[in-house]
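Batch manifest, entry 17 of 40.
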Amino acid sequence: MNCEDAGWLHAWAPTYMGSVGWIRADLVGDVEPTLRDTLEKLRATSPQDHSLVKQLADRVMALGPLDEGAHEAAIRALEASGDPDGAARARQRLTALRVPEVRQAPGEPQLIFVAEGELISPLAVLDHGKLTSYPVPDAIDPETTANTVRSFSERYFATGRAYRLYANGLAEGLALVKREEEPSCASVVASFTRVSKGAPMLAGGILTNFDLAPKTASPTPKLTEPQRRQVIDLVRSDLRSRSVNEDHIQRILATAEAGKPGLVINVGPSEGRSFPVLIATAAFESYPKQVEPDGSYIGYELRMIAEADPTGRYRLTHREFNQTDSEQNFSPRKFVTYLDIDKDGNDELIFSGSGYEWWWYEALGRSEGGWKVLVRGGGGGC
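Output type: structure tokens
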């Protein structure tokens, strides 16, 4: 704490970003407040103690910004305390929570976020059909990064802000921002939740502040055993053509399991065709004295896309492969979802990438019979 002025404390948080700001003195304490404890205090407070009721009602809604029960408790307490204006404001917040609206304010760009698990990060801006990457934060200049992220977060990561949610070519309703998060040192990330009660969180998806109106589509089909075998054969043939060690090929092609490296095959869009696009990704690292007898490090990463002819015979239409002897150059990709994010009639493939102390998202689109990276952005690192 640096100083106090009119009930406010000027504080500095010793984080990487060096956060500095003013905090209400009455909100500072030795114990972190919880929604449950604050609700109990609110229920136990006399309605005649108007200032304390108002304070606790505000805290309850702040601690549970997306909790309908917390807002209902605040409304009841404010009404009982004779504060109709405060109750009306709380009721407006509850209505906005129950019936959220996706709004693109004047001057706002059409933003595209990638969702993985419970986190979102901006990937790109769509402007008249053209995609532009949202820049990855620059951790080299913490002050500039902090100001840029803060400005962005205040608008787009405001608690309760609603976005449209899509996954694998389908509209999945709406999502609400929970809060800004910082999983590393300098990131542009927020947590979110789905609006539909009981709806499961998606492994991956897309959020937007505008309507993408995806094509009517059925759920993504499951990978068949013949398709899996074809992809494995195609990847094996490609690796052999690159003179990859046969023992390493077998390790790369091993089925990936939780916490273990290996080949992952995802089913992509069909786009009116009889057979879907198939996406293969793999990452394999051998560490000194664990796998390699000479104590050397080697890393392999690949991303390959296979498409079928009318008979169901697949061929590779995109190949990416990297072999490195340095952990700092190891940057595997993972498939997230697919969606037509630029409204050109073709679905883009969305991936996450991770490198040495940084991570990002990217979209691949069709190009002259193959695929290319259209945009790369979001994420962060140290």
